[in-house]
Fold this sequence. Notes:
Layout: E1 5-9, H1 16-26, E2 33-38, H2 43-54, E3 57-64, E4 67-73
Parallel strand pairs: 1-2
Antiparallel strand pairs: 2-4, 3-4
Amino acid sequence: MQVDKELDARGMNCPLPILKTKKSLTDMTSGQILKVISTDCGSVKDMQAFSNQTGNELVSTEEAGGEYTFFLKKK
């Protein structure tokens, strides 16, 4: 998957990963992919809710070693 932008939200607690994700998506164009890496386990539920509320597609979610990686496609 081609990633157009990456956001490192490791060490940030709710709601910072979502706020930073929202800010990162603002200067991206429709169809671009944002990769977000977070260590906040609450971000799994938060990213899904954010995707549902904003219409930005949550393409995939991965978990490895306490890190959560999200791929969002800008609407």
